[in-house]
From TrEMBL:
It is found in: Cell outer membrane. It comes from Paraglaciecola polaris LMG 21857. This is TonB-dependent receptor protein. Pfam families: Plug, TonB_dep_Rec_b-barrel. It is a multi-pass membrane protein. Coiled coil: none annotated. Residues 273-822 form the TonB-dependent receptor-like beta-barrel domain.
Amino acid sequence: MADLRLNTLTSSIILALSSGFYPLADAKAQEKTASNEQLEIISISRKRPESLQEVPIAITALSEKVIENAGIERPGDAIGLIPNITMVDASNVGDTQVTIRGIVSTRDAESTFAYVVDGVLMTNPNGFNEELFDVAQIEVLKGPQGALYGRNAVAGAIIVTTKQPSDEFEGRVKIGLANNDTQKASGVISGALSDTVRGRLSASRNTTDGFYTNAFTGADDSVDYLEDSNIRGRLIWDASDILTLDFRASVSDVEGGAINYNAAFALPSFVDAFNQPAYFADVNEHDFIFAFNVPGINEQSTFETSLKADLDLDGFDVTAVLAYNDLEETLLSDGTSASFYGYELTAQCQTDRATLNNAPTAIGGAGRTDLFGEFFAPFGVFAPGVEFTGVYGPFTPTSCDGYQFQERSQSDFSGELRFTSDSPSDPLRWIAGLYFAEIERDVVVAYGADTGQGFLKQAYIPATGPNPTDLLFDDTFDTSVMSAFGQLEYDFNEQWELSVALRYDHESRDVSNNVPNVSASGLNINTIIDGVVGPINPAFTANPDGIPDRNSTFSHWQPKVTLAYAASDDWNWYASYGVGFRSGGFNSIGTEATLDFWFNATGDGSPGDAVNAQLLVSDEYDKEVTTNIELGFKSSLFDDLIKLNGAIFDTTVDDNQFFEFFAGPFGLIRAVTTIDELKIQGFEMDIKAQVTEDVSIFAGVGLLDSEIKENKNRPLSVGNTAPQSPDETYTLGVSWDYSLAEDLFMTSRIDWQYVGQTYFHTLQDEQTPTIWDFFGTLGGGVPAGPHSVDFSNATRDAYSTLNLRVSLDSENWTLALWSKNLTDENYLQEVIPTPEFGGSFLHPSAQRSYGVDFAYRF
């Protein structure tokens, strides 16, 4: 654990704060009572109200005041304040990957954390990245929480509590303007509808053009633009002295840019062959050009509703929850296959290349370096007449790269019945419950030809359509979940508490294939084998009569044992052992067959014979089990002026589900693989301190030491660190509250976040074969191999960001000036290494934003 020592920065913060608090504690103890109350947070992490400082779980909680002062509007804003947790938000609105303590959530699979809103467990991982407004509190629990929160809580839980309807009539309107033509508006109205019914209605509308421009069209609102609308309603009915009903409903519509990536090669052999360093450049120095002819459009519509009943009986409480969610999401964007010449000979590709190429004018080219960069640095596009020679790259302004269409729709119905002892002062407290969920998810990934005739947004387009489909994955996944859980908490005395929790989860999963048994359009020459156009899904080769349905069941016991020790009124220690479980599942059928044909040696003369990548990617994957041992402390020092919490942990993950992209002549395949064994050790600490009557400091440190112990799919990765898991994260915030007049206050808050160097793949410095080994056997523009990929230049550099918000607050209004990424730090949001392609897909982060908000309360 030598790598997990507390570094000098953190030590200096703690020493400086501690040394200044001895006189402050004596002089200001009574004076700060009101300020201390804002630091006291009631946690509901164990499904009952408790003081945050007494709950034996590593929790970071953000109060309503922090949410307001820090300008938290989306989940990524909150995550930026918490050590040992990071988030990638790149591909589209609903596609986020959250890493908690080295365990990253997985595209196209279940989440790694439980997401709970007002006591309702959200089952759709794509619903996480929603607008956060009218929120009272956010709690982030770290470490496996499966015993109480069930399936998928292998890394932790995120609990959001929205504001309840008020007894008195009240409301608020808020408007905001910012750079990039950003406009924000929201409103809330709340109050009693009768003696027993209270209601709350809130709405928001946010739009922005984004930071980046499409160099091909000149449009500044077609790359990372966003339009987000939400309406939420809540009714609480005190039906009797013992029964309360809580009804929630919300609708949201989001449209935004999608698949805004550039490509970068990682092929040292190409540097030598073409005398061009751009084929093995540092991804952190990439100069982004977005120039696509297919506008990236992500559309997402969500409807959520739930009914929660709380019944207060003699000796225990009963809580029943029923919830229904429906999410419809589609995505259309440019394709990736141009560099493999699949659509080289189509009429539209030939037409486009006549004017859209970066060949120098001296050799008859158009010299469009604004679209592709300098000639062969690394992309080179020739005019018609020079065929199968250029390096086009993905997401280009020509139709030569085709298009892609995706659909991820889910509807689910879930319920929970929970019994809870109602006396928190009793030495024995208990919880018992049952949970069920019925989930149906449709996943479509289609690739096809861009003929210049527009696009139908549907899974399959016949050869006679405007955008014929050449490769299609289309599956319906049905999941049934049944769970039983319970927890006992027993106080041996005033100092010692033992908590034992246990949950059993059982999942039944079925998948049916919806791909029609037809051939590809024939426009992509890579689908033509020995003069015959292949099927639209390679799985039909082995299943000519139709692709069969698949089913499997997954179950697991999830225990958690916690021993807590209150050493004094100021110090609480705890030790815990916990297990988390994430169900296995299915990749779209045809994944294995496609990858075997192109990348694995089969001895039948297929391209994979030349590549021989030795992949072990299956059409299904195993369940994931996380085991965690943790020792932590929570302290309240100097009359509660300082709250200092910390934990060390040791985590083992078996069959960690890891998402991979595979790019090739077929287009792009999304697949879930597994890392057989992953070991993670870590340390984290956070501090909240009231330095003076007006100044508060918030700081945190997170350190990780991770190692891949076994990985049969990528054996060369053994010994590497966990993907998307920076070894260091730091946070530091300062808030200053100042009274300008009797009814006018100024609040200033500045937040700094540091994220260490990050690998995004299990392969990190190793060299492995690529599809270019096959193209090297064909002659033409690609020299003979080997052309191994080397990802030593594909690591995201460490970065830091600074956010600032200054507000003036009166009794009825607030005026705030703010800036996010104040220093305009340029860093990568995501790097997606695609080993067999020989490079990575890159997405930049948001640049500096700034604006003004005005809120009026009545």
